[in-house]
Amino acid sequence: MTDARATYQGKKVLITGGLGFIGSNLAHALVPLGARVTLLDALLPQYGGNPFNIRGIDDHIRVIQGDIRDPRILADEVPGTDVVFNLAAQVSYVDSTTEPFLDVDINCVGHLHVLEAIRKLAPEAKVCFASSRLVYGRILTTPVDESHPTQPLSIYGVHKLAAEKYHRIYYDRDGIHTAILRLPNPYGPRQQMKHAKYSIVGWFIRQALDDGVLRVFGDGEQERDYLYVEDIVDAFLRVGATDRTDGEVYNIGSLERVRFVDMVDEVLRVVGRGRKEHVPWPKDYERNETGSYRADTRKITTAVGWEASVSLPEGIRRTVDYYQRFRTHYW
Ligand SMILES: NC(=O)c1ccc[n+]([C@@H]2O[C@H](COP(=O)([O-])OP(=O)(O)OC[C@H]3O[C@@H](n4cnc5c(N)ncnc54)[C@H](O)[C@@H]3O)[C@@H](O)[C@H]2O)c1
Q1: Which of 81, 137, 216, 284 could make a disulfide contact with 220, Cβ separation 3.0–4.6 Å?
Q2: Residue 271 domain flag
Q3: How many A from CA of 67 to the centre of ligand 1?
Q4: Which residues, at least 6 apart from 296, have a Cβ–Cβ distance to it below 8 Å?
Q5: In terms of pTM, does the model score above 0.90?
Q6: From ligand 1's centre to the CA of 40, what distance in Å?
Q7: Residue 105 lies in a domain
């Protein structure tokens, strides 16, 4: 990875959704590499954007509070950009049910604006888009590789899939260098802790730190692929540094076999407070339950040499440590 990281020296990097969880962790990795980083974030209150996330690097980056749905802001910020990490999103599959028009507006229309701006104003830029395991829908076989059928169960999943296809079309039709990463369940420092609508690991860490009840739907036997944010950042940096931005889709995942209850037990063990309770599945969540998910990541390993390196116990330990220090900025 040494060589890939070196390519960011002096590069102009734009991170949409950059004040959020994954975007801000990317920014923290890019600043020491000598990249010229701009964060574009609308700071919509319901999502994970948090100015505290850039504490320590705020003097070394530009932050633009603006919306990817606003072409005038994109016209100002996109020219001259070498790499775009395209992460802005309505991130909750639960909210996509109640607010489907908002979801299509941000997750589809917004990304068409980003791609159009890149096509017109920075056609040489590399664009890495954050997609989700939820594009697969019900899981038929594990581990899941990129050829697994895509039949999303939520509006969010449908729109993420549409945005993936946009990124592919801009490569096929216009030669824009795009790549798509399908994320499993991310967790780690700088994630929002306000509600359980995305990142259940973060939410359970909060519950445990508050000595509360961690509610497990059903038996919790389903497998999940929890990926620590540093590993996610490493995957984005590698893909954005290489010429593997040819419209391809890459799964990323931890390669660990972890049941939902194992994650809960690990959180309780590390925090040393809180307790677990099994409750019946709420209807909304049951409808969206995909079954066990584990990513097959051979494609990205072959393409750019990426593999996850942080185990779940280690990742939870680091995450708990972060929120113990900075909880007032997230609670
Ligand atoms: N967190 C998860 O569980 C998860 C799982 C899979 C994929 N992803 C994807 O990863 C990406 C990053 O998510 P995250 O976990 O960092 O979430 P996050 O909520 O912490 O970050 C998203 C950021 O996007 C910003 N944003 C939302 N709408 C915007 C708009 N119209 N214009 C500009 N900024 C806008 C928000 O203010 C927020 O800071 C998203 O594309 C998300 O869909 C997240």
Answers
A1: 216
A2: no
A3: 12
A4: 143, 144, 145, 146, 251, 253
A5: yes
A6: 12
A7: yes
Nearest CA to ligand 1 atom 11: 87
Q: How far is CA 59 from CA 23, 37, 54, 80, in A?
A: 17, 11, 9, 21
State how many domains the chain has: 1
pLDDT by position in tens, the chain (length 331): 557 788 999 999 999 999 999 999 999 999 999 999 999 999 999 999 999 999 999 999 999 999 999 999 999 999 999 999 999 999 999 899 999 999 999 999 999 999 999 999 999 999 999 999 999 999 999 999 999 999 999 999 999 999 999 999 999 999 999 999 999 999 999 999 998 888 899 999 999 999 999 999 999 999 999 999 999 999 999 999 988 879 999 999 999 999 999 999 999 999 999 999 999 998 877 777 899 999 999 999 999 999 999 999 999 999 999 999 999 999 9
| Ligand 1 centroid – CA 327 distance (Å) | 20
Pairing of strands 126-132, 226-228: unpaired
State the CATH number of the domain containing residue 139.
3.40.50.720
Measured in angstroms, how far is the CA atom of residue 49 from the centroid of ligand 1?
8
- Which atom of ligand 1 has the smallest separation from the CA of 88? 24
| 275 Cβ neighbours under 8 A, 6+ residues apart | 213, 214, 268
Which phi and psi angles does 12 have, rounded to 5°?
A: -90, 120
Give the structural domain span for 31.
2-191+226-255+294-311
Q: How far is the CA of 45 from the centre of ligand 1 (A)?
A: 12
Q: Which of 11, 32, 12 is nearest to 233 (CA)?
A: 32
**244 inside domain:** yes
Residue found by looking up tokens 């919790």 in the block: 220
Residues with CB under 6 A from ligand 1: 16-17, 19-23, 41-44, 47-49, 67-69, 87-89, 91, 106, 110, 130, 132, 183, 186, 192, 198-199
